[in-house]
Amino acid sequence: MASIFPKWTNKIPLLIGAGGPVVLIGVIGFIWYYFSPEYTDVGYQPSQPVPFSHTLHAGELGMDCRYCHNSVEKAAHAAIPPTETCMGCHSNVKKNSPLLTNVRQSMDSGKPVEWINVHMLPEHARFDHSIHVGVGVGCVECHGRVDQMDVVYQAEPLSMGWCLECHRDPYPRLRPPSEVTNMTYDPVAEGYDPTQDPERRREVTPPDHCGACHY
Ligand code: HEC
Ligand code: HEC
Ligand code: HEC
Ligand code: HEC
Ligand code: HEC
User: Fold this and answer.
1) 168 and 72, same structural domain?
2) Could you tell me the residue range of the domain that residue 161 belongs to?
3) Does residue 122 lie within any of the structural domains?
4) Per-residue DSSP letters for 145-211?
5) Which residues pair with 183 in a beta bridge?
6) Residue 49 lies in a domain
7) Which residues line ligand 1 (CB under 6 A)?
8) Is residue 5 domain-resident?
9) Predicted model pTM
10) By C-alpha distance, which of 75, 42, 72, 37 is closest to 164?
């Protein structure tokens, strides 16, 4: 009688016995590595086509983040400001500065400045600024001290483990929604208790099921 399985399959139980644990350890190691906050792009700092400084504009000049990133409370993405926003000041301030050559060229040609993305989630992950900012998660929680960055870099992992760390215990990291762009406000030092804030009318329950963040 012909066997349904070729002869070599007899060895499969043996192979599983010997190789199984190794494969399993490999898989666990892979997942552990992938999901650990160490597997990240922290520190990624591309150089930009214009030496625009957040230390100067957001720090020293004290401009609010929303003056330039004006969609951050309404949309998933935080808009990068168009050249017109810069020229609102720089058609007068430092109008002949060589550091602003690319800005003036952009204004003349109508082509936007080609800023390089710093923060980028993979295609399959979903993130919405308006929800986080609206509920009182400050920019500084996820982007660090941008007001002290001459050149923007990625300060936090933005990994899945990092997202979930907050999602499982968000309350200590909430602040009054009026302080979301304040880089120096520290909810712990201020003794802020979100459950006692009369401005907050509902419980905050960030999701941890896969479909919330993945397409
Ligand atoms: C005067 C306008 C202006 C202000 C004010 C401003 N930004 Fe920006 N921001 C920009 C521009 C232009 C870029 C793109 C170039 C760059 O990365 O430096 C940018 C880039 C960024 C990025 C990186 C975006 C990416 O590509 O991932 C973050 C994060 C950011 N800003 C956060 C902030 C925060 C937080 C504040 C307030 C403390 C702020 N910005 C204030 C103009 C501004
Ligand atoms: C809960 C974390 C979190 C908070 C709070 C947050 N961001 Fe972001 N930000 C991100 C992530 C994640 C990305 C990358 C998004 C992507 O690739 O889809 C990002 C990207 C950006 C970008 C690049 C454009 C974009 O939307 O992809 C800018 C500019 C920015 N953030 C500014 C801000 C400012 C200003 C604030 C505060 C008003 C803020 N962010 C608050 C996590 C956060
Ligand atoms: C509200 C006004 C204002 C806006 C809007 C603004 N800036 Fe500025 N910017 C200033 C001031 C003030 C200085 C410092 C001038 C000085 O050093 O005397 C400056 C300095 C600069 C410098 C350094 C110039 C030099 O020669 O030292 C660059 C580059 C620059 N800004 C780029 C930008 C870009 C790009 C944007 C748009 C994303 C922008 N700025 C938006 C007010 C503004
Ligand atoms: C510092 C805390 C914090 C971090 C970090 C954080 N979140 Fe959230 N997230 C929240 C809070 C708070 C809510 C709002 C829950 C509510 O409205 O009840 C929320 C809600 C959400 C929601 C549900 C609302 C929606 O958009 O449908 C998604 C999805 C989400 N977060 C994705 C992410 C992703 C992806 C990351 C990482 C890149 C991330 N979050 C990082 C605190 C955080
Ligand atoms: C709070 C948001 C959030 C939730 C909930 C979440 N993820 Fe993720 N996940 C992310 C983010 C953000 C990334 C991308 C991290 C990075 O940049 O590497 C990611 C990455 C991944 C990756 C790695 C893919 C790759 O190579 O980039 C897998 C696999 C994954 N998630 C599966 C899951 C599964 C399965 C669940 C449910 C048990 C889940 N995720 C729930 C936010 C989330």
Assistant:
1) yes
2) 54-80+117-213
3) yes
4) -GGG-SS----S---HHHHHHHHTS-GGG---GGGTT-SS--TTTTT--GGG-TT--S------SHH
5) none
6) no
7) 48, 52, 54, 57-58, 63, 65, 67-69, 80-81, 115, 117-119, 139, 143, 146-147, 152, 181, 183
8) no
9) 0.91
10) 37
Residue 45 inside a domain? The answer is no
**In the block, residue with structure tokens 């040609």:** 109
**pLDDT tens digits in sequence order for the chain, 215 residues long:** 445 555 555 555 444 555 555 555 555 555 555 555 445 689 999 999 999 999 999 999 999 999 999 999 999 999 999 999 999 999 999 999 999 999 999 999 999 999 999 999 999 999 999 999 999 999 999 999 999 999 999 999 999 999 999 999 999 999 999 999 999 999 999 999 999 998 888 899 999 999 999 98
Q: Which atom of ligand 3 is nearest to the CA of 113?
A: 35
Query: 167: which 2 tokens?
Result: 């999602």
- The structure tokens listed for 36 are 């650990």
